[in-house]
Design brief:
single chain, 175 residues, alpha+beta, Aldehyde Oxidoreductase, domain 3, 5-stranded antiparallel beta sheet, 4-stranded mixed beta sheet, 4 helices, 11 strands, 32% helix, globular
Length: 175
């Protein structure tokens, strides 16, 4: 299994890589980590991935680039929490997450998620739930630079303990 920086295992079934990176994300490392090599005898039947990319437009404006900032100690704690939530809802799922900070150009990946499980439905749901919760509760802020100016885009606004926010993320994940 590939060793990623700051690798920590939180439970036997959910592996998180709560990494805040300044370098381009390597989705293949996350896939390898959650699939465990997928050799003979592997219980993994599905791996689902998500890459959030910097797009060239938003709100009718041409985006030039983005800058992300994060409060890393709290982001790591938040990613652990999301991993625990995934483990609670989808106990067979394995999860790996990375998020970029700094300047990102159009087309670069800002967030990478890989989720694996014995069955595809759980892998899809765990992956979707993870991005929804990141958007809800992770202390990561985005500054958008566009032709004619720049603006901070509102980041996470939900209280991590807000049950209705968690239920909303689960509904989206299982839709």
């Amino acid at each position: 299994m590939t060793q990623l920086p700051n690798r920590e295992t939180y439970t036997e079934t959910v592996t998180s890589f709560p990494v805040i990176a300044r370098e381009p994300l390597q989705l293949s490392d996350l896939v390898e980590a959650v699939s465990g090599g997928s050799g003979p005898g592997s219980a993994v039947g599905a791996v689902v991935t998500f890459l959030g990319l910097v797009r060239n437009h938003n709100l009718g404006r041409r985006v030039r680039y983005l800058e992300y900032e994060a409060y890393e100690p709290l982001v790591l704690k938040t990613f652990r929490r999301i991993g625990d939530e995934v483990n609670s809802r989808w106990p067979e799922a394995r999860l790996a997450v990375q998020h970029r900070v700094g300047r990102l150009e159009i087309g670069e990946a800002s967030v990478a998620i890989a989720a694996a499980s014995a069955h595809r439905a759980d892998a899809y749901a765990a992956c979707r739930y993870t991005i929804e919760r990141i958007k809800q509760i992770a202390p990561i802020w985005k500054r958008e630079f566009f032709e004619g100016g720049d603006v901070w885009i509102e980041g996470a606004t939900a209280d991590p303990d807000d049950a209705s926010a968690r239920e909303r993320a689960e509904r989206l994940a299982c839709a």
